[in-house]
Amino acid sequence: MALPSNSSNEQTWRHPGGKLLRAGPATLTEAELLAIVISAGTAKNPAEKIAADLIEKFQSLRGIAAQPVEELMKISGLGQVKLCRIAAALEIGRRFAQHEKSESQI
């Protein structure tokens, strides 16, 4: 992914999206990437905390993907809309990986 030409490596971001734009997506942790997908958190739980709680509880994005929806709904601040965003992002990744795998077998 190409970064905007006005990007810099200054570490003044307040949200992982700023870090992504300035330093590139590869520099983000799984929790930071997940926080971007979650977008807004709640008054008590910002997106970064919800993402960190998910990663801590399930160990990784793969661990999150293996959970039934009922288990994910137990995470404070994670409602249906955020679950849909996470599920969609994981499905996009799964389809991309599947496509790459099938392309490499040609």
Notes on the protein architecture:
The chain has 106 residues and is mainly α. The protein has one domain: DNA polymerase, domain 1. It has helices at residues 16-23, 30-38, 47-58, 61-65, 69-72, 80-104. The longest helix has 25 residues, at 80-104. The mean pLDDT is 84.
List the helices and strands and how they pair.
Blueprint: H1 16-23, H2 30-38, H3 47-58, H4 61-65, H5 69-72, H6 80-104
Structural class: mainly alpha
Q: What is the highest CATH level, the class?
A: Mainly Alpha
Radius of gyration over alpha carbons? 15 Å
Strand content: under 5%
The total beta strand count reads: 0
Major sheet attributes = none
Number of helices: 6
How many separate domains make up the residues? 1
Shape: globular
Let me know the average pLDDT.
84
What labels describe this entry?
single chain; 106 residues; 0% strand; mainly alpha; 6 helices
Summarize the model shown:
With 106 residues, this protein is mainly alpha-helical. The protein contains six helices and no strands. The protein has helices at residues 16-23, 30-38, 47-58, 61-65, 69-72, 80-104.
